[in-house]
Structure formats: C-alpha cells, structure tokens
C-alpha cells in the first residue's frame, strides 16, 4: 500500500465514489460517471501533463525532433459483427482516429487480444482481416501484439485493445482546450449511425434497417482539413456518449459556450426513426467515423470545401459556433426557435457499443 | 472480405489450424500453439519488418532522429492479487520489460482497462496504485488510457492491456536473432518464482509457501548491463512458457544451438518442491522479473559484476553458452552428466499466469 493509495482514499468531496462502491455499467458509458471514474480512480494516481490535457491522445515531449501522439482504446463491442463493420475495424479506426485528432499522423498500432476459449478460429480470422484492411486504408502498421486466452464464460468472444503512436504535425496545436470565441463548429456528417447500426445487429430495433455503422479511419480527412487551414483549434471524434458529450467536454476544457443550430444537425432518417421509437436522442448516440471541429470563422468555408472533396467528409456542415457565454455550456437552438441546454450523457445508455 | 482473407484461407500446410478449429487455452500459453496462432492468424495479415523480427518490442524506423520501441501486453492473471504483486504491477512491468528488452529506454505507457460490472472500486484503486508505484520505479509515465465495462460474467474482475513506447539506445542492436557462437548465456536470477507464487495464491500448492512473485521492472538492470558492455546480443524476459520456451525462440531466431548447464540453474527450494509435487519443470514456469541474455564471452564477467550491483540482478549467473550446433536446438547438460533436448512448451500449462 503506497502513499498514493492513502491520498486517494483520503480525498474528500468525491461526488460519488465511496469505499464500497462498485463498478457499474454507467462507468463505461463515456458520460459523467466515466469522467468521475477517470478523475477519481486514474487521474489522481497517474497525473501528468499529457493525461491532464484530457484529449483523446497524449502528446508527449521527448528528446526527439518531433512530438509523438500516443493513444489507446479497449474494444468490447457486442455483437462482434454489425452492419458496416466489426470489432476489428473498430479497434483500428478508434485508435487511428484518437491519434489523428491531435493533429498527428498515425504511424504505428499495437493490438492486445483477449480471446474466449471456444472462439471459432474463423471469427478471429475475419476480425484480423478486417483490422488489416482498415490499417491499410489508414496507412498505419500494426507493429506489436499480444494474445491471451481466458476460460469460456470469462470474456464474450474477443476483446481487442489497440494503442497507437503518431507524429504530431509541426506547428499544429490542437486540443479540446483551444476553442475560441467565434469559432465555427463543423461536423463531418450524420450522427448516430454507429450506435443504431449496432442496436440493429442486436435485433433491438424492431424493424428492418439498411443502416450501416459509420466506422472509418479519419486521418486522411484530417490531413485535408489541416492542409486547408492553419487555424484549426479543436478536432474530436464524438464516440461513446455522442456529440452532446463530446461538445460538453470541449466546452468545459475551453471554458467556452457552444451554440448549436438543431436544424443543421444531419441525422439519417432511419436513425431519427429508431431514436423516436426507442426514446433516444441522436445527440447521445455513438459515432465511429465522424469528427467535430472548431476552426476560425474566416477559414470555415475553405475547410468545408476541403472536407467535401474527401470520402468521409462529404456530408460536412457547420452546426454552430463557439460563444463567450455561457461558459462551459452547450446550448441548442431548436427548430421551433427556443433554446435548451444540452448536457453530457448521464449514466448508462447503450452498453458495449464500441 | 478482402484478398488477404482469401490468401489466409488458401494457405496450405497450416500445421494445425483448420477452418472449424476453435481457440483453446493452449493458444494463450506462450508455447508452440501460441506461435502457430500468431503465424497463422496474425503474421499473415499484419506482416511487416517490425513484427517479423519477432522480438518482444517492435523497433520502428521513423523520420525521427531516434528509433522508437513499441510493445503491448494484455493481462488476465488470475487471481488479481498474488504474493509479491498484482495485475496492475504485472501490467506495467510486463510492458516496461518488453520495451527495455530491445535495448530501449521505456518512456510512455498506455493502459486499456476492461472491467467487469460489479468489480469493487477498492480493488480497482489498489490495482491502479500498484501500477503507479511500478511506473514510478521504472521511471515511465502512463500517458493514455481507456476503460470499458462489460456485464457481470463477461470478464473476471478486470483485464488490463498496456502498450509502451521507448527510445532505442544509440548504436545498440539487440534481437533474439543476434546470438553468436561462443556467447555466454546469463540469467538474472532464480526461475519459476512468478508461476508458483500465482499457483500458491490459487490454493493449488497444497502447502504453505512464503514464495513471492518476482514481478519487477527490469529497465534499470538493463541500463547497467548496456553501460557495462557494448557486446550484448540478446535480451529477453522468459515469461509465459518459461526459460525453455524463450531459449528455444532465440535458438530458432538466431539459428544457433544453446547449451545449458543444469547445475548452474538457480531454482528457489520452494519452487523446486512445488514442481516436484505437481510434476512441473521449472524451465517451463513463468517469470516476470528475470531476463536471459547472450553476450560476447569476453564481456561476461564485467556484465555479471554490473548486474550483481543492482536490485534485480543480484542472483545473476552464467547458465550456458551459445553453440554453432545443433542449430535451432536447446540442450541441457544434466547434473548426472548426460545431455537432453529442451523443447519449447507444448500446449497448455498454467492458464492466466499473467
């Protein structure tokens, strides 16, 4: 037992984590409970500048002539295969995207597999092939890996944890903390596709759907964006917790307000229908091939044009702006003209969506 | 379905993996079946020079002024706590050691957590504190992390996958492929401690034991070794599959013979007793704080002296030599004077030992 442990246990004002509390599904949902878990359980122990920045990837200083971006993601999506993708594609794209969101060129991935005894070899082959295909598209190499097997019933088919290393573009400083008053907020395409596609694969929609997950590597899109403008302040992929949660994180990190225009939010009709039926809000549904960004207003149009010329940016639109007030808040101007607060995801929503 | 998949499926002469085969525990044991799995399922898809080198960490060329070492390890040890360590310490040391075994200075770690619903928060706190403590001792930062939660029964408490990035020492070229005829084989201490300590924690020994796992970060020991000699050819930590498996890997990679002297092999009396009772051979039991190395014979004594001056190298001994023949084989000269072949671990031995 180290001093650190005692410090953690001695911390007062922990909003929710007491000594006997257990991990619940909400801790993995990417919303507030996840943040509390990170703050209480991990940040207090691991605290360092790179972690503290709170971005999807860590930019690390070194004695090298460039900064590296390093990131990791564990993947436990259920089911393993869903329309438009599978756990392997997800594991590669998730980490490629996290590295790229720092304005870095992803170069190298690692992959740690936890396999359940009894997993059909063919399933593994398909997943690995899918990883390879996604890595090729992204232009990254999977340079290290590890495999563990656990007894039947101790995992759910397979879990994959990837880590990624990239080199940060020179002169680029992108962070969730860098949103500026007046910045345009650009979204690269429709929201909620991934989450609803996975629900469909679970048979939970109650109707036939042709919807595909949007899972995709976004690093080439980001290259196009950064080539078009040197005034990109924030890049983030709204995964678990959805766009609402990601924007709340940025509003908090930057201590800025964000005002969204509901009418401009692109939502696929099938996603809208599913959400209406199931009582979900597309703003909280996970995406795996979308990014949201803040860019100086004067560069917004040329960035949009550059995005429209790419495969994964065709549907890019301006969805709002960064405002000085109310600091740390996300507001939505509804189609009816009223304005409501958009909070971050609270508790659990769709478990094991990625 | 990509061309890669078709190529994999079309591969002939796969020694054991057929279309309908399932993952079994042996695939995770670190021996031959693991190698086959890697060859068949992963190497064929991900093939690149860094993976092909077959070392514990990947040395990756970049446009930077130094080479990076990148590695990953998934950890599923059962139970989570055992004499001398826990899954957190293991997760940090395992990856630190893999990076360091390339002659690199480990700098940055990532950690992906898969948590089972219902895990006591206190357990997580202890594990995280243990990670922090091990990271501090090793002098590395955990710069990125991710947490997923799965339903009760879909994991076993928690699993941790770490990845590590380090900078390779200038002028150093260390690889399992570099063993040279006449090299001394040095082992840093007693073998089998980790595996038997975990068995003790499972209550499978049938007697009380004071044995502790040897889990430890070895990067400072490696610094001392590399400061002492510029003729270090191989560094490897004999984890899953034990010393026998690691030496077989090196013999194969280097296409050299290795001759061990049984009388010099350090085995703790309690490990020896446990192995005798349970029918195990300490050569196949996992270690988590030991390294085996090949160094030019003329530097062996000064390397030993440097090792003896460090915390984790006190028990270092010369256990054998590299020989030109028989190529790719490990031989053991027994205490009785006979010589037997030491093969790599076949099939499953101790599941979830790390």
Provide structural commentary:
- Two copies of one chain form a homodimer.
- Chain A is an alpha+beta fold and 354 residues long.
- The first copy, chain A, has a domain of 166 residues: Phosphoribosyl-aminoimidazole Synthetase, Chain A, domain 2 (Alpha-Beta Complex), CATH 3.90.650.10.
- Chain A contains ten helices and 14 strands.
- In chain A, the strands form three sheets. Chain A has a seven-stranded mixed beta sheet. A five-stranded mixed beta sheet of chain A has the order 1-2-7-5-6, covered by helices on one side.
- In chain A, β13 and β14 form a beta hairpin.
- In chain A, α4 packs parallel to α5.
- The N terminus of chain A is likely disordered.
- At the A-B interface, α1, α2, β2, β5 and α5 of A face α1, α2, β2, β5 and α5 of B.
Instruction: Work out the radius of gyration of chain A.
Output: 20 Å
Lateral strand order in the biggest sheet of chain A: 9-11-8-12-10-13-14
User: What is the CATH superfamily label of the domain at 176-341 in chain A?
Assistant: PurM-like C-terminal domain
Mean pLDDT of chain A: 86
Find the count of extended strands of chain A (DSSP E, 2+ residues). Answer: 14
The share of residues in helices of chain A is: 25-40%
The ordered H/E elements of chain A are HHHEEEEHEHEEEHHEHEHEHEEE
Please tell me the CATH architecture of the domain at 176-341 in chain A by its name.
Alpha-Beta Complex
Largest interface (CB < 8 Å): A-B, 92 and 93 residues
Oligomer class:
homodimer
Could you name the ranges of chain A where pLDDT drops below 50 across 5 or more consecutive residues? 1-19
CATH class of the domain at 176-341 in chain A: Alpha Beta
Give the termini distance of chain A in whole angstroms. 34 Å
Number of helices of chain A: 10
General shape of chain A: globular
From the helix content, strand content and strand pairing of chain A, which structural class follows? alpha+beta
